[in-house]
Design brief:
By secondary structure, the chain is an all-alpha fold. Helices cover 78% and strands 0% of the residues. It is built from 3 helices and no strands. Helix 2 packs antiparallel against helix 3. The protein is rod-shaped and about 55 Å long. 4% of the residues are buried. The model has no long low-confidence stretch (mean pLDDT 94).
């Protein structure tokens, strides 16, 4: 934990609790980064497959995109 992190600690919270909260937030941010990258890859794949709307490949990418976006929203809400 850095001095800046320590200065941002809310009043009434113990340093070990704050450190655990920071770790939780970092873990969520890492997951968000991975999911965002996957979302952009899926958007590119859907753009490439736009001529095949309704095909199995297109539908799989579209449903996976919906899942990823739902996970992203859920993680953003937990921050």
């Amino acid at each position: 934990m850095t001095i800046q992190d320590l200065l941002k600690m809310p009043k009434g919270m113990k340093p070990d609790e704050w450190e655990a909260e920071l770790k939780r937030r970092n873990k969520i941010n890492d997951q968000l980064m991975k999911l965002s990258t996957e979302r952009y890859d899926l958007l590119d794949a859907i753009d490439v497959l736009k001529d095949e709307i309704g095909s199995d490949r297109y539908n799989k990418k579209k449903s996976r995109l919906s899942e990823v976006e739902a996970k992203i929203e859920k993680l953003k809400a937990s921050l």
